């Protein structure tokens, strides 16, 4: 889970990177925090999609789903 503090730190490190003052330790920290952020977002998306119920279609529907009904 990513916290508001983690996001603030990601932004702070991003500003330092843009300014060219990022140390090697900070690069490593930035990579770990970015991975945590991406994994958190992917988890949220997966949870959302897993919660979706499949839609039942009637024969000949015009939804454009292009699968057999």
UniProtKB/TrEMBL annotation:
Chain residue ranges for the region called Disordered: 1-28, 49-69
Bias (Basic and acidic residues): 1-15
Location(s), subcellular: Cytoplasm
Keywords: Cytoplasm
Entry GO terms, CC: cytoplasm
Chief location: cytoplasm
A family per Pfam: DUF896
Skewed-composition ranges (Polar residues): 50-59
Domain of life: Bacteria
HAMAP family (alphabetical): UPF0291
Family: Belongs to the UPF0291 family.
Name of the protein described by the UniProt record: UPF0291 protein SAMN04490355_10614
Lineage of the species this protein comes from: Bacteria, Bacillati, Bacillota, Negativicutes, Selenomonadales
């Amino acid at each position: 889970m990513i916290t508001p503090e983690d996001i603030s730190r990601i932004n702070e490190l991003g500003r330092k990177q843009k300014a060219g003052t990022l140390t090697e330790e900070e690069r490593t920290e930035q990579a770990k925090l970015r991975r945590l952020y991406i994994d958190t977002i992917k988890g949220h998306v997966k949870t959302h999609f897993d919660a979706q119920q499949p839609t039942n279609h009637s024969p000949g529907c015009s939804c454009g789903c292009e699968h057999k009904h």
